[in-house]
């Protein structure tokens, strides 16, 4: 509790008094005088926040509060995000802070931890930020539950790409011709798979990899040339995890006529075409003997497509064979879609819906350089100002 009193007969007329009880129930009190009311009010608010917590809870370890924090997130965040939090806690944060009392962690401790993992592991600023978010999340929850007065993680300085001299990898945008070249290399690499069509499909629909894994047979309507994006699938230990889309809303993706025809032919030969809930794109079944020899195994039409295995065993070799940038990621096929649609004159509003962005602003922010009109072409159309003499107006400089 803190109170503010005023006595204008004194040089410092504003006095703040506050009191609190320690863990043994003993009451303590303090007072402090200020020249201005503003500074006195600021101090009163500060001590009020600092004293409104339970010292007993502050004695609990960071590990105990981490368990409470993750428990509080269940049902409020996606299973994939919660799994990511637990992974960072287990691998990095708990070995550092697990046994430390939560009220004994200060800003310097958090700063030194982040600096150390960045330098020793050469982590990117984005990865360091993920670790900070986990630490800060636990401490923020402890503040919310009155265990500590303030979150010590709020005062740290996070690394930046500019400060570390890092250059972010540039997105790769393929032309339609390069998409065809990549698909041809994929078909030549293994003509028994539908992966050549799948690569073309990804470049012209702009789906995220987890959305491609999440597609079922009944999500494709070739008659109406519409694709229904309803779910995502992510591979986890022991199987697959099905979740909603990134923005938790389903969407309809329009298909070009030629792609709808190709998909219709593909579905006509699909082994599980009569099972609506069967995965649209097949995965690979790798036996142990093949796994150790680096084999690719046969197609498994009952198993969803596995992005990581596909990227390593199929996509990377095809890039090399096609002479395309080997730094290209699967996500760059999504960027390629945005570029192709923009070049075809599709309005940004439709591109945004096709890609499943929350709004057009997000699309503009991600693809600013794609939608940036060539200013030079417009500048050539700008006329010079009229001259009263009929000649260009030129100022002679000495």
Automatic annotation (TrEMBL):
It holds the Pfam family Phage_int_M. PANTHER family: PHAGE INTEGRASE-RELATED (PTHR30349), PROPHAGE INTEGRASE INTD-RELATED (PTHR30349:SF64). Residues 60-143 form the Core-binding (CB) domain. The lineage of its organism: Bacteria, Bacillati, Actinomycetota, Actinomycetes, Propionibacteriales. This is Site-specific integrase. Belongs to the 'phage' integrase family. Residues 27-36 have a biased composition (Basic residues). Keywords: DNA recombination, DNA-binding. Residues 38-61 have a biased composition (Basic and acidic residues). Residues 169-380 form the Tyr recombinase domain. It comes from the Bacteria.
